[in-house]
Amino acid sequence: MTQYSITAPASLNTSVKLPASKSISNRALIICALAGVKEEKLPDNLSDCDDTEVIVEAMRSMPDVIDIKAAGTAMRFMTAFLAATDNGEHVLTGTERMKQRPIKVLVKALRQLGADITYDGVEDYPPLRIKGKKLNGGSLEIEGNVSSQYISALLLIGPMLRDGLELRLIGDIISRPYIDLTLWTMREFGADAEWTSVDTITVKPKPYVPHPYLVENDWSAASYWYEMTALSDQQDVEVRLDGLMDGSKQGDSSVRYIFSLLGVKTLFGTKEDGKPTTVTLRKSPHRIPRLEYDFLNSPDLAQTFVVTCAMKGIHFHFKGLQTLKIKESDRIEALKTEMRKLGFVIHDVDGRELVWDGERCEPEEIPAIDTYNDHRMALAFAPVAMKQPIVINNPEVVSKSYPHYWQDLQQAGFIVSPQF
Question: Whose CB has fewer CB within 10 Å in the chain, the N or C terminal residue?
């Protein structure tokens, strides 16, 4: 097992070139494939993370068996893409954890549109055997409280369906910003797709129009630098993050508002709409003693704020976390287990909420954090080094979304030492 020991610098003043948004990259790649865009004309600044690379490789070679590894987005998006395009028969598979992540809701919806999909293993879970063909489309109903990636996968193929798609979401709608990001990206490529009522999205059968496209950088990746800034004891800390946009459609851009409550202020180099700029993070003397927040629309930020708040002694009650149990790991249980190593006793409420009221336990002298094959466990726990020594087990998992994270830490003055 690989381990990295992380030691923070005495002072933090650095510039960081964040990775490109994998959320936008993956949506743009599926759209480009549906539009028949050649590889040499793919969008600029595509993410180089594992989740994007598996889609690029699948589109490049289209093997009989497509292994998307641990990429949940790729599994959902490729399922819809393969089902709705005449690319022959393929088996879509992934890691052992991926084979435990349910996909029944998406498969059922695609079958209602006429897709030919069978389970190639355990019912309701990957791997899938998909025989691609042109689909008619029409009206569908799907639960709104399932993974937004199911909804996005259906929307992305909507313009290519003969009758378009009318998608009605039943009940509570979670991760709505990710759905809006999908619609925005689709419209960037000429799609006619919009909310036509509070719970219904209509996609007209109007093909995508390919054109040069620039992918902005990743607000999710920015969250870990916000975390380091918040946990720093120095008042003159400054972190400059390149390639972010004010008014970004990325749901996790809300990170700047939440961290403003925890003593981090955000300064934009320019606020010109649609233009990437440099964002500067600095300390603010203002912070709240307790944070209550509903992460229904941005669940991927939960680990960042659990760790940050506990390490700053800020009590919290976080809601809207029901999807955390079916992510790359069971993030509810993983957080509870690993936070105990740091001396914090976190409680969950029905697997949907996390609460810390100040309860402590005996911490490990130098905690070794398990990452559960989950990139966000490594990314969110490494900044603990700003407060104390920390070891990250299996640190290579960051390649899923932020491949050069450890190099960026080293450039910022962190000592990242392999342990044997």
Answer: C
